[in-house]
Amino acid sequence: MKILNLFELSAQNRAKLAALGDVEVIDGDKLGGNAKNIDVIYGWGKPAESVLAQSNKLKFVQSNSAGVDYLPLAEFKAKQISLANVSGIHAEPISEMVLAYILSFARGIEASHAARREHNWIGDQIRNQIYTLTNRTVVIFGTGHIGQGIAEKLKAFGVTTIGVSRHGRPAAHFDRVVTDKSGTVEAAKADFVVNIMPLTAETRHFFNPAFFDQMENQPVFINVGRGPSVDTKALIDALDTHQLAGAALDVFENEPLEATSPLWEMDNVIITPHISGGFREYGQAAFNIFYKNLTTFIQTGTIAINQVNLSAGY
Amino acid sequence: MKILNLFELSAQNRAKLAALGDVEVIDGDKLGGNAKNIDVIYGWGKPAESVLAQSNKLKFVQSNSAGVDYLPLAEFKAKQISLANVSGIHAEPISEMVLAYILSFARGIEASHAARREHNWIGDQIRNQIYTLTNRTVVIFGTGHIGQGIAEKLKAFGVTTIGVSRHGRPAAHFDRVVTDKSGTVEAAKADFVVNIMPLTAETRHFFNPAFFDQMENQPVFINVGRGPSVDTKALIDALDTHQLAGAALDVFENEPLEATSPLWEMDNVIITPHISGGFREYGQAAFNIFYKNLTTFIQTGTIAINQVNLSAGY
């Protein structure tokens, strides 16, 4: 069995794969004429495309991300290729990132950063303006395990957590969950609005002028989901017109965020370079999922965990 | 009974004081010739000094801060003036501030801010460098209610919490508490070091070259206690020589921080303008303590809660 590796593999993990017996790992830069013989792909990238075009043996792709919107899902479905994501390992890092954003706004750190450029001490101006999270309301679009992880952390700070999902079913750590339609009504009254929805046809430009126009309470908008769920021009307008008090953005319609984007220079906007799910042990955590799936795949031809529904897209 | 008000009083709270009967509230700017007739001071400032010099009736001062190092404690003691602080209302806002600082460093927000000046997208450089708080170690100097509040929040993130106090007695939410001497040894191995000690003769310049020289693990240093507990020059040297990975500072030896301070321009340093204890409802929370003490003082001549030990200084 030939595995095309397009992510990262420690020496220890390469040894673990070798110990499985009939397994050969080929790194992306050494694919050469092997594209037609690949059975499994770990990660994704240019070399994967030639495998997809040439190999009839490809039956399992293990992505190294949670979102899989960048993959040719229809082609996977047509060719009966099983796809797994690494959903589950992002809850802790993304939850912590969202708490960092929210606390930075609540506690005046973002305001202090802006004043700092002028060496400006604004204690007396903001000391009575800043606030604690107690009894604040955060509306989270997406109630999967990451959304639940965010809600769990927020509950430790006395926050009211409202989830929004297609089905509106109750989920752990949410005070209540509503459906998409009611979500905007809830967001309108919230202190913070968080997007962690997957990108699908339905969520593309979900956060558009119509959405921002309904905000009543000047929330801070946080995107740790996918960039194209947001209409960037509408977001910038909503910030300019103070429909939003601020934004914290980890993902963007175009990544890297173009150097000419006005977002870079806007006050009350935190920009991070698509890192919210990252952490030092990510490679090992992703490998653990891949290894579990690979061993099952070798034995049974199916995968054990994290299989993506290729029609739903997540 | 005449009360000199040097803090803030809402109309509602003024009415509550008036309802106590023989109570007259005099605001600082209307003190005039009344200095010698003042019985009680709420807050502190210039007019209080003339009261202290002239009034034999002054028997109770309710400060509007937790730390009281800026007050003439020896004179209070000699004149048998009872002093109360508002300790207890800062735990939530300061805990949230410390979590914001720590998460900003852990999750790469501080690094992203530094890169942002150049519109620089550093995702690939830092995504695998950043980390979650799980199993990190935070050493907190000061195990009173604020220290405990910080530790409580950190436990929600899976952090190992080590407290340092003079007595070394166990305290809530700390995995363990050690005495001053062992504190430096613990700090040397920590990921974050937090100061929330009161300022006393013993804590002045506690964080000095000898302290920073012992750091082995490049911790981030956080000061939400008092500025003079830190030797600023030693702190800057420790940052320059990478004995520290960074710092988050809310208090300074001189406040406002002078515009010429090199700290303003240093990367990996978060500066906030002495706001960590602030929040919108602070005035009401402080008044609640004052009101409780005042009613007891009127009835019995003593105060009910938050009395400062004038010899210890906190």
Description:
The structure is a homodimer of 314-residue chains. The first copy, chain A, has helices at residues 11-18, 46-54, 73-78, 91-106, 109-116, 123-126, 145-155, 180-188, 209-213, 232-240, 282-300; strands at residues 2-5, 24-27, 40-42, 60-62, 82-84, 137-141, 160-165, 176-179, 192-195, 220-223, 246-249, 269-271. Chain A is elongated. Chain A is an alpha/beta fold. In chain A, helix 4 crosses helix 7 (145-155). In chain A, 33% of the residues lie in helices and 15% in strands. Chain A has two domains: 2-88 and 280-300, Rossmann fold, CATH 3.40.50.720; 91-271, 3-Layer(aba) Sandwich (Rossmann fold). Chain A contains eleven helices and twelve strands. A seven-stranded parallel beta sheet of chain A has the order 8-7-6-9-10-11-12. In chain A, strands 2-1-3-4-5 form a five-stranded parallel beta sheet, with helices on one face. The interface between A and B is large, with 51 and 51 residues. Chains A, B: Residues 99-276 form the D-isomer specific 2-hydroxyacid dehydrogenase NAD-binding domain.
Q: Strands of the largest sheet of chain A, in order across it?
A: 8-7-6-9-10-11-12
Distance between the termini of chain A: 27 Å
Helical element count of chain A?
A: 11
Strand content of chain A: 5-15%
Summarize the main sheet of chain A: 7 strands, parallel
CATH homologous superfamily label of the largest domain in chain A: NAD(P)-binding Rossmann-like Domain
- Please tell me the total number of domains of chain A: 2
Q: Which protein chains are joined by the largest interface, and how many residues does each one contribute?
A: A-B, 51 and 51 residues
Structural class of chain A: alpha/beta
**Radius of gyration of chain A over all CA atoms, rounded:** 22 Å
Keywords (chains A, B): NAD, Oxidoreductase, Pyruvate
Domain D-isomer specific 2-hydroxyacid dehydrogenase NAD-binding (chains A, B): 99-276
EC number (chains A, B): 1.1.1.79
Organism (chains A, B): Lentilactobacillus parabuchneri
